[in-house]
Structures are given as structure tokens and as C-alpha cells.
């Protein structure tokens, strides 16, 4: 039986991980530590909290002594660090909070683990898993091979630079102090509970509200898309099967230009409206409710400064550990559109709150 501290467990991937873990290992103890920034949402794990399948602690990973105390109190043996500022556009607007949480926060968390876990000899069953990104490797040209675990780091945005710095600190703590760390560098996730500032949920929510779908620049930037459920399974596998000190790239092996992703989402929403007459009443402002194709809402806008052109992940190392992505993009995108249609309350509460102001400023600038 494991005793996990899941930091950032009220965010997109962290919340999915909590649902996954409590369904897969119901006997384990899960403690979530989350600062509930704009991106944190207790509603995403509300059911698990109510059913007492996890303990929620409102707190900041930067609070080293408090976190060490929590780890001792709960006899934590496994830390999975999802807590981060995660949106590239926001990092371009306000890099400081990214350096604070992603760099200093990761450092504070490592110090807390070092203090709670004591000398290296006692660390056999313990693990500090740090969740990172493929963006640390920078941008690929069309002919470049996909990122491997030995591709040199070349982060281009304040976000990816902060994640790269955190990865280096994690590695240094494993090497110097023997903290039993592993790192995963994952590609673009999508699925339930994703905050509607990221491309997929932003498009779904905008579509349903009849707002434009912003395509940065020419829309030919390429990302590698992975369903969040597959990411959770990959982390589980790493926790169970990886030696300490290893890093693992995780990708979906499905690379598509952004514009094709947006077109696919438009077509899925249009198809759902054709199948279900109730959607016209529920979303009267949407294009299909007004007998227009959702694609008519696509709009090219000013490009993201320093926008990385292409990511692709070579997943052969984790494949040798036994990982295979189970959800195809076709099935995963359809399921995600369906989730947002069925969980209107979840995203409406967000759109009617703080996110709206940030969204309005983004539009004013483009
Ligand atoms: P998210 O922005 O949806 O959630 C981040 C969570 O961290 C929120 O609940 C927030 O409240 C919490 N948080 C922020 N600062 C905190 C602090 N100082 N102390 C405690 N909690 C804090 O992010 P996400 O998309 O779920 O990403 C989770 C992790 O996975 C991040 O480290 C991100 O870099 C990484 N990642 C994300 C993706 C992706 O596609 N979303 C892909 C690869 C890696
Ligand atoms: O690659 C992994 C990374 O994926 C994670 O580390 C990040 O936390 C996560 O946010 C994500 O970063 P991206 O910048 O790739 O995701 P985003 O959804 O913001 O954008 C995906 C692509 O779509 C990117 O090329 C920018 C483009 N885009 C995005 C938005 C929000 C648009 O064209 N229009 C938009 O409105």
C-alpha cells in the first residue's frame, strides 16, 4: 500500500491522476496539496473528497516546512509533483509566477522530501516523481528526429525554461543527495477537466458559445497529442517499474498541425448537433444552432511570440518498459467533446469567473 502526496491534484492532469489512482488502487492513501490558483478547481476532485477517498490540503509547494510536516504526519512514501504554472501564453505575460512555483516550488518540495525522508539509506521504498514536459527540448525543424531522453535541453519560453530548470534541480538532488527521483517529459495532454485556456477545451467552449476559434499564425505548428488517461498510466508504470534516477519521454505518437486539430473538433461538434436536437436549445449561440458550420468560427490571429514550431516525442524507451498509448486521437477527441457537452456546469463556472478577464485581455491584444 502506497501513501501518496499529489501536488497540483486540483489541476487538469493532477485531478485525472487522482481519479485514476483511487479507482486503480483504492486501498492507497492519497493526499492532495494544491494552492488553488486560477487553474486549480476543487470541483474536479470534489466527489473524491466528499467520499473521503482522498484528503485535500490547501497549500503551496513553496512552503517547505509545512510540506515536510505534512509528509511526516501522513508518512508519505511517494510524491508526484504536478503543481506548476502550466500555460505558455501566461508565462509570456508574467514569467515571475512561473519561476516561483516551477523552480523555487520544486526546490522547496525536494527539500521537504529530503527533510521528511532522512538519510539516503532509508529511501528504498520511496519515490519523488517530477512531472515535466517535452517543451524543455525546444522546437524541431521538419526533418529533425523526435525528442529522445538525450536530446539537449533548449527551452524557448519562460514556461519551458522554468520546467527545464526544475528538471535540472530534481536531477541534481538525486545525484547529490540521493533523493529517489524520476522525471517524465510528456507531450500535449487533452481530456476531461482541462482548463479552457488550452487549445482543445478553448475551442470546444468557444464553439458552444459562438465565439471565434483563435488560430495562432498560420496554424501549422505541430504538437504530439496524448489522452490524459494514458499519461496517468505512464506515470503509474514509472512509479512501479522505473529505477530511480531515470527520465522518461511520454508521447502519443500522433503529431498533427494545430489547424487540423481545430477542424477535427469543429467536425465533432457539428456531428453531435446533427445527432442531438437538444443541443440547439442548450447552445443557441453556437454556429451549428444557426445552421452554420463550426469551421466558420476559425480565425487566424497574431502568433504567440517565440512560438515553437514542432514537437515530436520518441517514446521507444518507455515502450520498452511496457507503455502503449491506448486511446487513439479519434476516440480521445470524440470522448473529450462529449465530456464538455455533458459537463457544462464545470466549465461555465470557470468561464463566468476569473478566466473571462484574462480571455478578454488576450482578445484585446490580438
Ligand atoms: P494545470 O495548470 O491545469 O494545474 C496546475 C495545478 O497546480 C493547479 O491545480 C494549481 O492550483 C496548482 N498549483 C499551482 N501553483 C501551485 C503551488 N505553488 N503550490 C501548490 N499548487 C499549485 O496544469 P496541468 O496541465 O495539469 O499540468 C500539470 C503538470 O504537468 C505541470 O507540471 C505541467 O508542466 C506538466 N505537463 C502538462 C502537460 C499538458 O499538456 N497540460 C503536458 C506535459 C506536462
Ligand atoms: O507539450 C506539452 C505542453 O503542452 C505542456 O507542457 C503545457 O503545460 C501545455 O500547456 C501545452 O503547451 P502548448 O503551448 O503546446 O499548449 P496550448 O494548448 O496552449 O497550445 C497548443 C498549440 O495551439 C500551440 O501551438 C499554440 C496553439 N494555440 C493555442 C491556443 C490557446 C492556438 O493556435 N490558439 C490558441 O488559442
Structure description:
This protein is of the alpha/beta class and 366 residues long. The chain has a domain at 3-190 and 227-252 and 306-325: 3-Layer(aba) Sandwich (Rossmann fold). It is 45% helix and 15% strand. The protein has 14 helices and twelve strands. The chain has helices at residues 12-24, 46-50, 64-73, 88-93, 95-117, 158-177, 199-209, 228-241, 258-275, 278-282, 316-320, 329-342, 344-351, 354-365; strands at 3-7, 29-34, 55-58, 78-81, 127-133, 181-186, 188-190, 213-216, 222-227, 247-250, 255-257, 298-301. The strands form three sheets. It has a seven-stranded parallel β-sheet with strand order 3-2-1-4-5-6-10, sandwiched between helices. Strands 7-9-11 form a three-stranded mixed β-sheet. A two-stranded parallel sheet has the order 8-12. Helix 1 (12-24) links the parallel strand 1 (3-7) and strand 2 (29-34). Helix 5 runs parallel beside helix 6 (158-177). The longest helix has 23 residues, at 95-117. The chain is globular and about 65 Å long. The chain starts with a strand and ends with a helix. It binds nicotinamide-adenine-dinucleotide and 2'deoxy-thymidine-5'-diphospho-alpha-D-glucose. 2'deoxy-thymidine-5'-diphospho-alpha-D-glucose binds next to helix 7 and strand 8. Nicotinamide-adenine-dinucleotide is lined by residues 7-8, 10-14, 34-37, 39-40, 60-62, 82-84, 86, 101, 105, 131, 133, 163, 186, 188-189, 195.
